[in-house]
Amino acid sequence: MPDTHQLNDLIARRWSPRSYNGREIETWKLRTLFDAAIWAASCFGEEPWRYICAPRTDKEQFDRLLGLLVEKNQQWARDAGALAISVAKKTFTHNNAPNRFAVHDIGTAFGQLSLQAVALGLQVHGMGGFDAARTRAEFAIPGDFEVGAAFAIGYLDGDGVPPAGRKRRPLSETVFTGAWGSPASFAP
Ligand SMILES: Cc1cc2nc3c(=O)[nH]c(=O)nc-3n(C[C@H](O)[C@H](O)[C@H](O)COP(=O)(O)O)c2cc1C
Question: Which atom of ligand 1 is nearest the CA belonging to 129?
Answer without folding.
Answer: 8
